[in-house]
Amino acid sequence: MAATIADPVREGIASGWRVIDASTLDEDRTLDADVVIVGTGAGGGTAAEILADAGLGVVLVEEGPLKSSTDFRMLESDAYPELYQESAARRTRDKAIGILQGRCVGGGTTVNWTSSFRTPDATLDYWQRAFGLAGFGAADLAPWFARMEARLAIAPWDVAPNANNAALARGATKLGIASGTIRRNVKGCWNIGYCGMGCPTNAKQSMLVTTIPRALERGATLFTRTRALRFVWHGERVEALECAAMDARGTRPTARRIVIRARAYVAAAGAIGTPALLLRSHVPDPYGVVGRRTFVHPTLVSAAIMPERIDGFAGAPQTVFSDHFLDTLPLDGPIGFKLEAPPIHPLLTAITLPNHGATHAGRMRELPHLQVVLALLRDGFHADSPGGTVGLASDGTPVLDYPLTPYLWDGARRAFATMAEIQFAAGATAVIPAHGEGAQFASSAAARAAIAQFDLRPLATSIVSAHVMGGCALGPDPRRAACDPAGRFHHLANLHVMDGSLFPTSIGANPQLSIYGIVAKLASGLAAALKA
Amino acid sequence: MIPSRRNFIFVGVAGAAALATVRLWPREAPRPGALGADGVAVMSAIAPVMLAGALPGGGARETALNETLVAIESAVAGLAPRAQAELGDLFALLALAPARWSLAGMTASWQSATPADVARFLDRLRESRIELLRAAYDALHQLVMAAWYGNPRAWPAIGYGGPPVLG
Lengths: 532, 167
Known about the structure:
The complex is a heterodimer of chains A (532) and B (167). By secondary structure, chain A is an alpha/beta fold.
């Protein structure tokens, strides 16, 4: 039974880890540390382990709750409100893009689908060429990726893909489109398919069960339900981090405040949270780069009905990909896209399928036969893809404004046509692009003709993102980048950024391993500097 | 009351008549963690139409709808305060007859609207040329669909057996 699965987090707490749920605080707190890290996702978790291993005193600040395998009941109705930003209902300013981001200890790594790719060479080459970013070439980063792959058990997944992923591979192969299998960060995975709701068996090597426990064992302190409000700075240095305790539900700050003074400050709150924290802090930003060039891999969804059972809710959710439409298109030409498959669980499927009433209900009754493909647009490599801007609402919470340009819609149209063609090649009897009233097409020719005429526009075409990147870019030139190549904010000597907001463009692949590798390099540099 | 900026945006597209009504209309601020009376009226009318063809028959239908409303209320309570305020504004606006009429041609009250009235209203929102109305459709769609399909009672009809038992 589930009770026989060991819960390393609960065991750690019992063994004396310093974990403070700020929603239970009845007085303000002030403390000192060598380093304070805001955020416990791929960036914050990686940095915490490296800095704690160097013998530094680390305090971690996390806005979400600490939940672990005992809490992970594989229910969407639990997981989305508890583990995701804004109950998984976060959207861009005009509401046109739905954003899935983690908000819990482990951040996105607690709820992601385990896909692990090194940063594509083409992306790294572009950073060097277009932004003058030296030291981040494929050869420079290879040892850092190798180190994190070993740490997080990132390896090829040798189990046969579930039927949903197999259909993507089959359709692509029939059309002569190259596909591959995705490496995963798992150890002893049960292949059950609930990665997105928190791994109930601790097989996924997320920050929650790897780097954060290690940092806590080395004496780090973790504040949960704690919102970083602002850095207090003077001259060229940050002097303190001011935080608010959140209420038990995590929606509103309480009156309790936590002030942390440290030698170095690390922002790792993700590519919406980090720029927002810097903006709330009114950090010096003479060139207005903070929060600019934020990328999301705008993602299109195509559903199909297959004659056979797919049961896309079962089995490792994301194991097959195709980069054909990235590799065969010039990086700075028409936008390319990566093809992948998602898990097909009832709630996420129901909110993604267009329309309502009998049409929607009929599609939902086909759930076991539904097959779904995703196309992730590679944004940020073209003048017509400048990305979005993170700003602040009147209550200080972040808002991402992401205009959808004709350049992106052109990619969306090609992506819909390609996904439909692949799904028919895989044997689909019908394809339903997630657009408009959710029309269903019975042949590739019919789908192609209709897609060519689609009136693609915000809030008629379903667009989602699980990858927010950029907004505090790395680069030597302060006019174009927020952080120097060491990850240090250009205008404050002891403020560092260590998360996906460092990326000068989107990655063109699921970003977790890019964050792990790049942050491992930067955090090791910071550790050495602080020990010197 | 003084309309918030969000109200003003919604109403800006609806016309001056609706704006005047919003200004004059007394409404209780939505209670934290609650749909409020307006939200309950709107969602009670919309949920059965959104879920037409999806709900079980007989007495189970009433239970399903009640649980859907409870789940919607709980979802709204878990949203960030800003999102809750936006939804509160939307519900307040949709509670106003002139706004309903000018935005989506619906004259009936939520209590007296027939399923056909509500279906037409939803189609008009979904197909509107106005982005904000399509955003409103999306918000209503997500609330209802998430509330019902997150409920294990919805699963037998869609061939989903629920999560596996580990052990």
